[in-house]
Amino acid sequence: MTPERQVATVSTAREEVTLARQGGIAASNLTELIDAHLHMPFPFLSNRHVSEAAAGVDVWLRSCGLTDEVGVAAMIAFTRPAELASYNSPTAELDVLQIVANQIAYQFIFDDRAEEIGRRSPDRLLPMLCESIGILRDDASPSTRLGAALADLHRQVRQRCTPAQAARWAWKSREYVHGLLYEAVAQATPLPPRMGLSTSIRSLTAGVEPFFPLAEAAQPCELSSEELHHPVVQRLSRLSADAAVWIPDLFSSVKEQRAGGVINLALAHQRAHRCSLPVAVMLAIQQINGTIREFERLYEEIEPELSPAGIGYVDGMAGWIRGCYYWSRTVPRYVDAALTPALL
Asked: What are the coiled-coil residue ranges (predicted)?
C-alpha cells in the first residue's frame, strides 16, 4: 500500500468515527464502535442444548484433570466455550455440539499455555507441540494432561465422524498446532511482523477450520468430493475462518495491546498506519466487512449448485462468523473493549 493510500485510508476511518458520533450512533466505547460499523448479516441464534453442553464441558475437563491446574477453571468461566459453540452451531444435535464445545475449551487452554511458554522462548514450545502432532498424526500415546485431553478429543471425533471427516479434522488441527510456533517466533522477534505476515500467522492460529469437518458430520450425509473441493467452497472456508477470528481480534485488541501481543488484526493496522486504536479498529472493520461481503456474494452464487448437505456445511461456516461476533460482544474475556473510550 502506498503512503498516499495509507493516509487516505486512515483519514476515511477517522471520518467514520466522527460520523458515528455526529450521526446519532452512540459510540462511546470500542464495543459500541464495532457494533455500529461491523457488517453482520447473520442473525443471532443459540443452540437449545447449550446448558447441557456447558455441563458436559465441565465434566470432561475434570475427567482430563485440566481443571486441577491453576487458573484453568477461572479462564473457562471467562471464556464460556459452550456459549461460543451454541452460537456457532445453533442447529447441531447435542452429540456434535458437545464435541465442538469440548474442542473450544481445549483450544483455549492449549492456546493460553502455548502463549505463556512461547513468550519465554519459542523453543520451549517444541515438546508440547510435538506431543500434539504425534497424537494427531501417529496416534501416539500422550505424556501430559493436555496430550491426554487431545487424544480423548480425537477419539470423540473418530467415533462421531466418518474416517474421511476425522482425517480432515486431524489435518486442520495439526495446521493450528504449527501456527502456534510461528506466533511464538513472531512474538520473540525484536521487530513486529508486517501486516501480510501477521495475517498469515493469524489464519493458522485461528483454529476455526478444524471445526468444519464437524459441521459436515452434522449433515445427513458426507459431502461429495466435488462439493468439498470446489474452488468456491474452498474460498468460502478461507473467508469464514478469517472473518471469524478477526472479529474477536477487534474486541480483544485492548487486552492484547496490554499483554504485548502482536498477532492481532487491529494491532497490525495500528502498527502499519501509526494511528490510534479506535482508528485501527475501524480499519480492521473495513477489512472484515469486505471479507464478509465476499462470503455472502460467493455463497449466493454457489448455493444453487450445492446439495442440502453442502448448504448445511456452508451454513456451518457462516455460523462461525455470526457466533464469534455475538460471543465476543458479551464474553467476560473481552470486557476491556466496553471499558475503552472510542476516542481519537
From this structure: none
